[in-house]
Amino acid sequence: MSGIVWLASYPKSGNTWMRAFLANLFIDAPEPVKINDLPNFAYGDARADLYEQASGKPLEELSDSDIHKLRPAVARLIASARPDAVFAKTHNAVTELEGVPTIPPDSTAGAIYIVRNPLDTAISYAHHFAMEPAQAIEAMNSDINQIVTVDRSVFQFLGSWHGHVASWLDAPGLNPHLVKYEDLLRNPVKAFGGVVSYLKLPRDPARLKKAIRFSSFKVLKAQEQKGGFRERSKANDQFFRSGSSGGWRQVYTDEQVAKVIEYQGDMMRRLGYLGPDGRLRC
Length: 282
Hints:
By secondary structure, the protein is α/β, with parallel strands linked by helices. The protein has helices spanning about 15-25, 40, 50-55, 65-70, 70-80, 120-130, 135-140, 160-170, 180-185, 190-200, 205-215, 215-225, 255-270; strands spanning about 5-10, 45, 85-90, 95, 100, 110-115, 145, 155, 175-180. Strand 7 and strand 8 form a beta hairpin. The protein starts with a strand and ends in an 11-residue tail after the last helix.
């Protein structure tokens, strides 16, 4: 397998957890990989330096249109970074803007898509971007939602939560490996083991369990408390918040939950977050 294996998700759905697991699995060091070293293991398609390298211009001289037109060149840079497959984090939906793909197929070898109950995603999304929980619902229901270019990270087009999920799961010819955040919590050996199988890696139960242990929420949170995390938003004081499932029940009103289901219900049913009877399952 050569080219990019995308580690894709809507923001705050478990992407960092997946990157930490894979880094610990591949590096197999006696101590956990440091969270601030993750960008050296898995590239990010929002890294400003890649766009500057592809264009020969500083980020300040690039418009959003310029940035987007550079995505295929940036993808080629990432794909050529290693002779075999290279992991790359993205929050972009699979779509085209101004006729240019957000996820260039020519550089793509595969994808691991991490998804999380949108009600829990919304809580973490609100915390990360320093907004009210109700605002997070509005953002995730919007078909034009995006993360703007800021500091050393270029803009990423998200769209709505259900549109984002569908764009990856239904992308022609992609056939991504779907991982549910809740399955990582309930049965990490089985869920992460499925990722190992998708990547066609040798089965090594001891190595798998060590990578899971070294990438646990407890370990990642402790690393952030000790040395900070460069990917933390400047709008808040921590990146790793609770790492749990079902917290939405203590935050959202029945009316707000109904609003999420109104917009996201079809995809929630498809993924099993909502039963045929309309009852929430997690």
